[in-house]
User: What shape does this take?
Amino acid sequence: MEMKFEARSDLKEKPQGALGFGKYYTDYMAVVDYDEDQGGFHDARIVPFGPIELNPASMVLHYAQETFEGLKAYKTKDGRILLFRPEKNAARFANSNDRLSMPKVSEEMFIGAIEELVKLEKDWIPTGEGESLYIRPYMFATEAQVGVHPAKSYKFMVICSPVGAYYPEGVAPVKIWVEDEYVRAAPGGTGFTKCGGNYAGSLKAQEKAEAHGYTQVLWLDGVNRKYVEEVGSMNVMFVIDNKIYTAPIEGTVLPGVTRDSILHILKDWGYEIHEEHLAIEDLMQAAREGRLQEAFGTGTAAVVSPVGELCYKGEKAVINNFETGPLTQKVYDTLTGIQWGDLEDKYGWTREVK
Assistant: This one.
């Protein structure tokens, strides 16, 4: 994809020390406009990172037509730059846009914009242990009209942020609050998409969990408030009797790229996988009986996040003595090893940016 380039005269000072997550942004951003009256996508460009001018009546501000993705660029020890399964993010982005009645971005445009920006910002990719360049593609409605209908104009954009290791001192377990009052998603809704509204609607439960001393929320299904679905912004897996249980992808759970990758790896290792509805009562009973051996969330930011404790209706279940389990650690080491180019990529998941 050919993109115009607008240079800036004042390149930023790159951050030193701890990077955190989402605190710093690179010099440039990619922008592609869409206008139905101009035949679709046009004016692809890379411009200096900075504020966006929006009409106060822009439909994204009133009706939330907005989608996003998240992936990373990694710099290997021999200096190569790798993306991890960007075609999966492209496909999910297209599905999210379709559900929100927004134009689909082709895989070629999606990956092309990312690669052009990453090539330009290659010096922003940090090389410390566990560090990477987080990439945020997103799209939103810009048509200025206060009326409930699909917009006719949009912006597709990509920004980048150097990020530190999610666990600077090693993979550490978190405490999870099982939410049985609020609902994240329901059949026929937008649970499978990455749209801002899903996350805005989750914040109340997150505040509730934190007020009780818990880090994340484990969501139950929206119909029966019975079956386990996701943890916060991650998919979740449970090891019960040496078998892997995780919620099925049926429209209410995000089809995570990390989730899919880990299931591939676990199947290769010979584990029995159950992608099925798991009742919270059955999960707690397995914990009571000592059959719940490990639990972990999966997602782009943390890759793997061990779960050390669940709290459901006042009952607490401590998992693996609140320590990172051996399988959880092995999964984390294997997947990050592939992503950073330290282990053989026998699946063909990494894509080099040249």
